[in-house]
Amino acid sequence: MWQRYEDGAKSLAPDTTTYTIMANVLCKSSDPDAGQKATELLEEMWNRTRIDEGLDVKPNHRVYSGVLSVWSKSSDSNSVENATKIIKEMWQQYDAGDKSFAPTAWNYNSLIFLISNSDVPGSGQRAEDCLREMWKRSEISARTRPNVHTYNEVLDAIANGGGPDARKNCQRILDEMWHRYNDGDVRLAPDTKSYNHLMIAIVKDFGQDCGNLAENALREMCTLQESHPTLNLKPNAVMFNRVAAAFSKSGFVNATAKASSLLEELHPNISY
After folding, report:
1. Fewer beta carbons within 10 angstroms: which end of the chain, N or C?
2. Which tens digit of pLDDT belongs to each residue from 138-162?
């Protein structure tokens, strides 16, 4: 298209829609270099804009979101850093006066998802840092405000990252969700996924109390489901299995019997 444009066919000049489509194609591809290629598209758009401002190729929020999506699905060892750079560039454009560039919660969720599924050291803390940045930025741009998906991605990153404080940090984040929900932010009501991440952290804890902690979390869900029937808090079979695993790893003498007793008691409250 550019070749034909430069040969005189001005009507064939690629535009932002063209580049957005190309980024979406890269997002769905299995190309290991998709992230780098998407970034190069972005750079090409800026270069073309500098050469001729009359062209409709200036990157916009949609293009940046597309490039960010490519990096969020990339296995490149530098994907987290590159995705973080995309977010920073969006804020730079926002701070320069183009308010349409403000990253959305969806943009940050993509970055946190990438952090959670990477082997980046301190992934749990990095994910929480993103959450804190979102709350700070939401004071000037409401669409950056975290949602329940943001919190669940942070919980996932903390649980997957493991470490001696993972369980406590997951519990702290979960408590924050309930605090904000009770203060009126109904969008942040914890759900089954929230508690599932907590249980993963509990099972990884290997402490003597992990069985009891997992059971308490399960019972809390059952109680909350009864008091908040409109919320998605019904435990499922996977979560019950995590409780059984927690008792087994804690060295509980009658772990199998305990699991059977719990299943019999809580059977009506569990989704299969």
Report:
1. C
2. 999 999 999 999 999 999 999 998 8
